[in-house]
Amino acid sequence: MAPIAITPPNDNNTFTDLTQEGIKSALRKNAPSQINAASLTTATTLPPPEPATKAQDVVDAPLAELDASKVQCTYTTAPRSVPAVGSAEMASQKVCTDHMIQAKWTVESGWEAPTLQPYGPISLAPTASCLHYATECFEGMKLYRGHDGKLRLFRPDLNCNRMLMSTNRIALPAFPPKELLKLVIKLCATDGKKWLPKDRPGQFLYIRPTMIASDPALGVERPKEALLFVILCCFGPMGSTSGGIKLLASQDDMCRAWPGGFGYAKVGANYGPSLVAQGEARKMGYHQILWLFGDDCTITEAGASNFFVVWRTKEGKLQLITADLNERIVLDGVTRRSILELARTRLTSSSTSTDLETLEIVERKFNIFEIEEAAREGRLVEAFASGTAWFVAPISQIHFRGKDIEVPMVKGDSGAYADVLKGWLKGIMWGSDGMEGHEWGIVIDEQ
After folding, report:
1. At which residues is N6-(pyridoxal phosphate)lysine found (predicted)?
2. Among candidates 370, 369, 372, 345, which has minimal Cα distance to 359?
3. pLDDT tens across 336-345, in order?
């Protein structure tokens, strides 16, 4: 699969390509030199620059790029205490580590030198663009304390590439993804040793890189100022829902994402509007919404996670199926991508990694009626959701239009395929089960 990058444009009609043309124009004007054809899909390589007059040369002078080598470090003089494992304080998702990364961008000069500084509040004008126009995007990553004593990141390059795509979707500035990754590693190396001590193997910190438009102007236009920051936050255990996740299928008056929108980008506007329905679903005893789209009830995501199902076709072929990315209404999740790659490598007819029956890997548009039919005919094998937060979460039930679709879990609390895929991923993330040296696990040198 190609690297997560800018989503290809639809060339059917010039007037339907305004968003993609705007993204390309912004990249052409101020894209960092480290962003090249290898970083982008073939459909979105940068157009050649147009000849410029001397006046244009002044106006379009290259802006300063984000450069992690210029980071200025100021260490805290008031260290924060580390919450106890299992404490309410840790589970509150409010406690962050001692330090954070910040970097400011302006349209006049580009990126200023980033800083590593004590964690603390951010000052914003009440008129800041992000507070009014949803000019905000973020990533979700984890720093793991391995069972072998090492600190690891899991495929962080994919998160940094995806964040570049998200920033461009909402008119925020470009940056070299490798420089963002260096800043993430710097913060993890600074705070990881204290906040994930070696006597806490199997624990993690949540990493939240974020970019907001800090431009203090109420005009509805491209922001002229932005702030990038990275924080590390304590989280309690996630992804271990006893009895499996129960999903409530979305109703006809509910829509999470749509073609031509921004469902494929990790922007704040994807999440806020979904919280009302999610809250009501939880009151009814369900964990998340299974988001459907259109009259045919196409399956998109489960809450904020990608959705997978294992079933047999009517011809008896076993398949692992998930929604494709063609309509840009589904997030290209890092865990999703990793599951597909592991499954293709280890669970297809050419693999011998397990004693499980081999299956076909399918990415295509499918709907809730197909799942309903498969369950009725005894062809539904299992289903699960995947994401950085929930990890790999088995699904036990889907409620759709007044009826419950019961999903088998042959291992009691999981399906067999979800269980083995989760085990492989855990081995990579926490350095265990023979996965210690896997290329997806990036070891952090602790300070």
Report:
1. 266
2. 345
3. 999 999 999 9
